[in-house]
Design brief:
six-stranded parallel β-sheet; 366 residues; Glycosyltransferase involved in cell wall biosynthesis; Glyco_trans_4-like_N; Rossmann fold; Glyco_trans_1; single chain; four-stranded parallel β-sheet; alpha/beta; 38% helix; transferase
Amino acid sequence: MVDGLARAASAHGDPRHAVVVERSTFQPRYESADVIEYAGRHVPAPVRQFIDPALGRLAVPRFGTAEYFAPLVAALRAQPPSIVLAHNAPQLPWLLRNTPHRVVLYAHNELLRTYSRPEATRALRPADGIVCVSRDLAERTRAAVGTENEAKVHVVGNGVDTARFTPRMEGPRGGPMRVMFVGRVVPEKGVDTLLRSAAGFARSELEIVVVGSAGFDSAAPLTDYETGLRALAARSNARVEFRSFVDRTELPELLRSADVLCVPSRWPEPSGLTLGEGLASGVPVVASRVGGIPEAAGPASLLVTPDDPAELAATFRRLLEHPERRREIGWAGRRWAEAHDWSWAWGRLREVLDAAVPGFHAGSPD
């Protein structure tokens, strides 16, 4: 996401971005932005997950979080005044309050579930803006940030890389209709609903490909949920294939090999990059009608009720029986993606930054 925004900013003639990252993470690095590295500081997970939230409820500053971000804050203090886009880090506006930087929280998820309204109000009081990736997430965020911060909340949807993700040009693939899931294989993502939807299909009709792992390590042992999915697949009439987590460089070709991309989430996802990448690939998208997914899916996708394998199966049946409709939906999705690429997203974000921090340049550390 940062790469997409940084490349779009450069294409618009805006200042080059810098990205602040912990030294041992995010390899290999994108070349779209300058890299500011820092040596991370270990803070035990229980401190951040349990002790800090308890302190927050008592109106006591979260010392573990402050300790965790201290090296990052030190690295930013050495930089010229900038707009800092704090990705999923609601603590940074407060921790950078005595620096010359202007801080905009960039929320990709619901970040304030462990915050009381007084704590969220205080933590985000120094923020110049709060950017959310969907209207659904923005509504939930406004309810959490306190009255004085509500006006700071803006919506900037995720863009999509329409240059890397492109449609298959060689015509119909042939064989069973290939329905693909790409993402983390965890209960919230609803892969079990997808597998249950295949019960009424023959192997010659439907093929399901599940791409991903519980985390981002393809060599990690299977979780109980992943093991259960394989047992469910063994009882399915349709053909089911599991592939572990793949590097992003492999995704464009992988998505082009699909006939349908399924996003069967049961939790209110704020947005979803893979969904946009499927649209850009000219693949019909079938997705749950929940959270920010309908906004990201646009009018070219087919929306279904979460946790409803019968409705999902009926949607697959219609697509199977009408391949020309699949092609129409796929190309409509491609047009939607082209209108919502990273250039579009950066243009919207630039407008928000200009309004939130008038007169300040938009070359921003992320």
